[in-house]
Amino acid sequence: MNFDPRFSTRNFASVGTRPIRPDGVDKVTGRARYGADFNMAGQLVGRVLRSPHAHATIRKIDTSKAEKLPGVKAVITAADLSDLTDGDAAMYDILDNCMARTKALYDGHAVAAVAAVDARTARQALKLIEVDYELLPHVTDVDEAMKHSAPLINDAIFTEGLEEKPVKPSNVTKRSQFGHGDVHQGFGHADFIVERSFKTEQTHQGYIEPHACVASVSSDGTADLWVCTQGHFVYRQHCAQLLGMEASKLRVTSSEIGGGFGGKTHVWAEPVALALSRKAGRPVKLVMTRDEVFRASGPTSATSIDVKIGARKDGTITAAEATLRYSCGPYPGSWAEIGAMTAFACYKLENVKTVGYEVLVNRPKTAAYRAPSAPMAAFAVESAVDELAKEIGMDPVDFRIRNAAQEGTRSSYGPVYGPIGIGPTLEAVKNHPHMKAPLGKNQGRGMACGFWFNFGGQTCTDLNIGMDGSVSLAVGTVDVGGSRASLSLVAAEELGIAYEQVKAIVADTSSLGYNDMTDGSRGTFSSSMATISAARNAIKVLRERAAQMWDIAVDDVVWEQGHAVAKGEKHGNLGKLSLKEIAAASGKTGGPIAGHSELVADGAGVSFATHICDIEVDPETGATRVLRYTVVQDAGKAVHPTYVEGQYQGGAAQGIGWALNEEYIYGKDGRLQNPGFLDYRIPVCSDLPMIDTQILEIPNPNHPYGVRGVGETSIVPPLAAIANAVSNAAGVRMSHIPMSPPRILAAIEAERAG
Amino acid sequence: MAGVAVSTTINGDSVEYLCQPDETLLDVLRDRLGLTGVKEGCGTGDCGACSIILDDRLVCSCLVLGAEAEGRRVETVEGMAHGDRLHPLQQKFLEHAALQCGICTPGFLIAAKDLLAKNPDPSEEEIRFGLAGNLCRCTGYDKIVRAVQDAANVMKGA
Ligand code: FES
Ligand code: FES
C-alpha cells in the first residue's frame, strides 16, 4: 500500500497527552543499562594510549614491553587496523582518527591500545608502550590556520570550491557560497549599514555519559557490539567496513544513551575495541574517561565570522552578507557550509551572500553539536541585526517582524519555504509578558531568532500485534530523550487503542532494517512517520481478518477507534470487532498480525524559534546572572508536549553555557588545558532560572500529524539572545563568545576608556 | 597488591567484598557488586552521577575508596524504592519528566533525598544550591527542580 505522508487535520486522542515514558521506571531505579553497564563473561579491559602532542610524526612505536606484562592480552597500533577503505577518503579519515597512522594530529589522538585482565594492568601496559615522536609545528586557532605562514596539517589538501584549483596546499579545505541577488547593489540602496566581526570558541556537547562499548569478536568472524550511540546501524556499517567484515555478521545493540547531542554520531573507540577483541579472542570493554571525552571525541567548531547588513530608513533590509570560517579539527568537514546556509535563513532578503571556509586545525575532529554550526552564525547575524535596529531607531522585534521570511519566501540557502513559524514566534514574543516586565539596574533584555533545517532519512519500523492484542513497536532510531513515549502515543493514536497497550523498544541491527541515526531532530519526525505507516499496514491486515471472520468483503470493513466496523445496511447486525478479538482469532485467520514500514522520510519541515532573556551584569567584575529566560518555538505538532518542553529547555541551557562560560582552552604547546568538568564548567542548577516555554504548532504539511523536528533549534538563538541582553545591560557590544567575566570586564573598561 | 576485606551495609543488606587498596567505592559498587545504577560521569568528583549516601552524608563514590566503606552504611539508588513502591522522588521525577537521557537521574535522586532529609521544605533557591553538585546536560534543571518541589510537598503530607 502506498503511504501518503501529507498532513490532514484530525482530532487527536493520544497524541498531545503527557503519559509517563515506558523506559522511565528502569531509569529512576537504576536498572536501565547504559553503555558502561553491560558486561560479558571473560571480558577484558581496553585502554587507549593518546598523543600528548598537538602535531607530531610517529616515527616508531615499540609495544614489546607492554606485550610482556602479565595480564596483557592484546596490544594494537595502526598496523593492526589495515587500511581497507579503498579510496574512500571520508572513511580513511575515520580510520585515521580512531588510530593515528603516520602522524598524531591533536592532543588526545589515539596511537595505540591495550586489552588486559583488569584496569590496573591496562594502565600499566600503556606506560610501557614507547612512542618515538618527531614534533611538528602546530596551529589551533581558526584565523591563524588560514594564514599562508601557518603550519600545514595535511599537504594533500588543496582548497575545493575555488574557480581555479590552487597551486599550493593549505589548511582551508573548502569554500562554499550561498545566496541570491546582488549584495553590492543592495548595499547601495541602504541608508544604514552595520558591519561587525565575531568569534566563538570551541565547545563540547558535554553529555554526562562517556563513550562506552563492549566488543566481542568470535573466531568464526561474527561479532557483537554493545554501545551507547545515536545510530547503531551507522556504527555497524563503519565498524564493519573498517574491520573488513560483512555488516550482517556484526550485530550492534544500542544501549540506553546518556546524552549525545551529536557527539555520538561518529565511531571513535568502537573499531579499536573490536580490533582488540579480535586479537585477544575475548570480549573487550572500552570506556573513555572524561579527560578522553574532552580531548578525543568531537567538539563543535571554533569560528570567526564577519557580517554586513544594510537597511533602508523604513526598516527593510536591502542586503546581507557574511563570511564564515569554521574549524574542522584535522579532517575536512562541511561545518562552515552549514553555517553559511543557516546564517540568514530567518529573513526575506532580496540580496544575500554567504561564504563559508572549512579550516583544519590541530584540535579533535569536529562533530555535530545540536543544530551544528547554526548557533555561531545566528550569534553573529542576530547581534548585527540588533545593532542595525538600534541605528535605525526601531524596536528589535518589529525590525525582525518586518524582515521575517514567510511562506513563499526564497530562503537564503535556496529552497522556497512552505508554511513556517518565524513570523508567529516573533508575534508571540512581541506579546509575551516577559517582554513587558520591568528591568532593574545593570539588567538588560535581549532577544534573538534561530533556524534549523531538521532531517528526515531512512527509517524502518515493525509493529507486531500479540495474540492478546498488545502491541510491540520496534524502532531503529535511538531514543535520546523520550521518543519511545512519543512513538507509543503515535501507534496508539493510529490504531485507536490505549497508550498502555503499546510497548516500544529500540531494536538491534540484526532485528530490523537499516535506520539512519538519530540526528537532525529526526527521531520522532521520521520514526513517527514510519510508525503511522506500519500501523496503517497493520490496520489493513486487521480489516482483512475481520472481513474473514464475518465472511464479508474487506471493502465493507472500516477501522474506527480500535475496532473493525462493518459498513453498510446489509451488515447492520454485525456489530464491531475489537483489535483484541481479531488478534485472539489470528491463529485461525492467517497467522500473526503485523505491520511493517520501510521509508525515506522526506520533508522534515524547517523549524524556527525566538528566545527572550534577561541578564544582570556586575560592572565591577563582569560576572553575569541569567534572571529570566523564555523559549518560543514551532513544533509542528507536539506529540508529547512535556518532552518537547524538555528539548526547548535543554537546548536553551546548553546555549546559556556556551554563551557565558564554556570554551576549549589551548596552551601555546597545543595541549587542551581544561579537559574536565571542573575547568570546563557547564551550567549547574544554581546558575539557571526556570526556563519558560511556549509551543507553537504550525503543521508540517509533509507529515500526517504535522510533526516537525524539535530537538535542535532551541540551541540556535541563545548565544545571540544573551549577547544582546549583555550588550543592553553593560552598554557594550560583545563580539566574542563565551562572554566570560574577564571578557565582559575588558569590554566595559575599553568602552570607559573610550 | 593484596586485597582488602571489607564488611559493610549496602541498602540495608550486609555485604562483604575484597577490593584493591586503591580501588574506588564507585568501582567496587559497579564492577564487583553489580550496582550499576551508580553512574560514572567524570571520576573526579565534578558531576555527581556517582552520588551515594554514606552514613547519612552525601558523597561522590568516585572520591571514596572501597576500603573506606568498612563498617559503614551505603545507600544507592537501588535502595530507594520499597519493593514495587517507588520513592516519592522517583515517582515525581517520572511525572514531571525530570529526566531525558536519565544518566544523571540516580545521582539527582540520591542528592535530592539527602537534601529533603536535611531540609524537608526547601525554597527553590535551596533546591538549586542543594543540587548544584550534580550535572545534568539534558533538562536545563527546570523539571528536576519542579519534581523535587512536588516530592517535598508529598513527603511533608505523608
Ligand atoms: S563520577 Fe563521581 S562525581 Fe562524576
Ligand atoms: S537527563 Fe541527561 S544528563 Fe540529565
Automatic annotation (TrEMBL), chain B:
InterPro entries given in the database record: 2Fe-2S-bd, 2Fe-2S-bd_dom_sf, 2Fe-2S_ferredoxin-like_sf, 2Fe-2S_ferredoxin-type, 2Fe2S_fd_BS, Beta-grasp_dom_sf, Diverse_Oxidoreductases
Segments forming domain 2Fe-2S ferredoxin-type: 4-80
SUPFAM superfamilies: 2Fe-2S ferredoxin-like, CO dehydrogenase ISP C-domain like
4Fe-4S recorded as keyword: no
Signal peptide residues on this chain, from the entry's feature table: none
Catalytic class of the enzyme: oxidoreductase
EC number of the protein: 1.2.7.4
A Pfam family the protein falls into: Fer2_2
GO-annotated molecular function: 2 iron, 2 sulfur cluster binding; anaerobic carbon-monoxide dehydrogenase activity; metal ion binding
Keyword vocabulary terms for this entry: 2Fe-2S, Iron, Iron-sulfur, Metal-binding, Oxidoreductase
Protein name, entry field: Carbon-monoxide dehydrogenase small subunit
